[in-house]
Amino acid sequence: MSLRKALPLSNGTTIPQIGLGTWLSKPLEVENAVVWAVENGYRHLDCAYVYGNQHEIGAALKKVIPSVVRREELFITSKLWNDAHRPSEVEAQLDQTLSQLCTDYLDLYLIHWPVAFVPGRGNFPKRADKPDDCEVDETTSLVDTWKAMLALCSTGKVKAVGVSNFTIQQLEAISKATGENPAVNQIEAHPLLPQDDLVEYCKKEGIHLTAYSPLGNNLQGKKQLVDYPEVQQVAERLGATTAQVLIAWGVYRGYSVIPKSVQQDRIIKNFEQITLSKEDYEKICEIGKNNHIRFNIPITYSPKWSINVFNEEIEKDAQTDYTVKLE
Predict the structure, then answer these.
(1) DSSP strand E in the chain: where?
(2) pTM score of the predicted model
């Protein structure tokens, strides 16, 4: 059964530790997934404008509010997309998100990526000189966007604001410029990408972490986390699924975790938490030693983002045309 634990945020609210991720959910799948999740106890839903499925999530919310749950019992997150980083665009895209989700407010609104695209030309504006690349907006800084995000807190449309995919350097830049840390940094985190330095920094600064892709993903066609023998051995011994073991690994580290699934049985199982011992946790950690893998790197996308976000080897080796504009 779920432990139903909620973790504190810096604004005085709490975030349920286990949530439902909706990234990479295909059209017509996510509506049922959200209904099943809420009916089976989930209270944390992670959404984003760019996922293109918020209207389905809104339809699902209409089915479960108030018959299953009150709106105030849910914790709904969404994210500002790259093409709306200019301060004049920030609230307008939030309003679109609220309309799509059929809600008056968000519990948490995040800057999805520390990368701005030129506005007004769709989610992935192509460069005229390199049509396989996205066109980055070099005039808008992270600080510009972060100030606009902070201003949203006085509108009643969001309860907390934060970021996603930010590095320590990027977090330091927005904090130094405004004196305000984000409530949350949502990052890719799993045994192959523990991000220990970032975890420690955010803990010290009072920034909550949410881990996406806790089970990894197959964007790069690499070995799935659930297929590692160490994960399978722990799962077999505990009478658990491999997904439950990987979710428990993130929970052991003290942050929130948002596994994605659109299959009813997996949605239910992922919420039935198990607890890892120190020995089990350390066994799972072993698979990441000398085996660093980040699955989600924009320079590998199509269309490509010709920018170094994380300083991964593949980014350093590539011909990049842009840098992250901090301030």
Answers:
(1) 6-8, 14-16, 20-21, 44-46, 75-80, 108-111, 161-164, 184-188, 208-212, 256-257
(2) 0.96
